[in-house]
Design goal:
The complex is a heterodimer of chains A (185) and B (159). Chain A is mainly alpha-helical. Chain A has nine helices and no strands. Chain B has helices at 3-17, 23-35, 37-51, 60-76, 79-98, 104-111, 139-152; strands at 121-122, 128-129.
Amino acid sequence: MTDEAPGAGRIPDSDLVERGRTGDESALGALVRRYQDAAFRVAVSITKDDDTALDAVQEAFLKAFRALEGFRGDASFRTWLLTITANEARGALRKANRRRETALELVEPIASRGPDPAERAVLADESERARTALGKLPEKQRMSVTLRIEEGMSFREVGEVIGSSEGAARVNYFHGIRRLRELME
Amino acid sequence: MSTMDCAGIREMIPEVASGRAGQAGAASVEAHAGSCEGCRAELALARLVYQSRPQAPAELADRIISTMRRDRRRLQRPWWGISAAAVAALALGIGITARPAADTLDLLDVEVALEDETELWLSDDGVLAGAPVFDALSDEALAELLDELQAIAPPGGQA
């Protein structure tokens, strides 16, 4: 687990960003370690695939660092980075879908199958059920739930990342929670 | 329990589920959930979501940081360094592939005007490597150029 809890003694993001602008690699590395998990969760919540998510996260950090000079701090570094990550993940998902469509055109269709006994055993686990149910929500609801609960973001911040107003983020969150409860029952 | 109470509690549930709420806030949510089935279920669900949150693989940070370093080195490299080195490497490659390996050192002395012979060396396969006049060029960049060169003009002159 690499989540870093905010607290006393933690170097503020703004200081790390300022040092990162001057080329301080240790500051950039600290930002990577601080937000890699949050970025990964945002990416995987969109792509639903670990490998695609990892590529999107890497690209998001690189883009953010290249653009650090232009970052003015209107949003927090975290919100800014996660917005870039969400955009990268959506782009990666589109590419992956195009590749999948091409691949499907080239192969004979195969019969769909249910999970095997081992997979069923894993899915029976409550945590897995929660993740599976979360994956069934529409993207904005899923991201609102993820960002609000897992990252502790305010509805205003959630709205910035998902490209909606604060009010829409709130509605998406509560609809998502209600739907999640239905799926878990 | 009034609807207003539930609405206020539900706003606080994410903070309580993730352990970010203060003691007083957590206590009031827990107390409410004790007597409200709906909020209790929502708190349990939020805890489940938080506890099952995915974690990035441990190696992700190293992967990003090493890619970032490569990226920054590439951006910092002067453009003339790349093009001049590419021209030199190409010239060297043509020279090498046109002559037997035994002549390689003589050829280098004549054609490349190396600043310091002590910086010359031969790689395992007898192909030259070295630090000609392009001090800013990293070993990695030179290796990349030589790889490209081999693709264009493989040893033996079968380009």
